[in-house]
């Protein structure tokens, strides 16, 4: 495997990881955390 194939492989793996993180973040796991600044805290 030459250096160019290695660069392509690293680029594709990085893209897949990035897309995975974006999908994970947009699944709604952070709904409660996103509402925290607007709930409570009023005294």
UniProtKB/TrEMBL annotation:
Record-annotated membrane-spanning stretches: 6-26
Keyword line: Membrane, Transmembrane, Transmembrane helix
Domain of life from the UniProt record: Bacteria
The UniProt record lists the keyword Transmembrane helix: yes
Protein name: Cbb3-type cytochrome oxidase subunit 3
